[in-house]
Specification:
Layout: H1 2-7, E1 14-19, E2 25-29, E3 49-51
Antiparallel strand pairs: 1-2, 1-3
């Protein structure tokens, strides 16, 4: 009975991140969490991070055509 109860616990999804202070790679909960669940970098304690798998960038869009070349005004 205990095994069935233990199996019903939700699993935490983790993501790999890089510390912005010391560049250490570590795992953190994907859904965020409180300071107790995710206290920051295990090496330096800094809480700034960036995911290792960034979403793809959208293509850049321009409102107009290519920039026109300006000629010097004759005086």
């Amino acid at each position: 009975m205990e095994a069935a109860h233990a199996a019903s616990k939700p699993l935490a999804v983790l993501e790999s991140v890089r510390c912005l202070e010391c560049s250490e790679i570590y795992s953190k909960p994907l859904a965020g969490g409180t300071v107790e669940k995710n206290p920051g970098c295990p090496s330096c304690g800094y809480v700034g991070w960036i995911p290792l798998s960034l979403p793809p960038e959208s293509p850049r869009r321009f409102a107009g055509g290519p920039r026109q070349r300006r000629l010097a005004r004759a005086r």
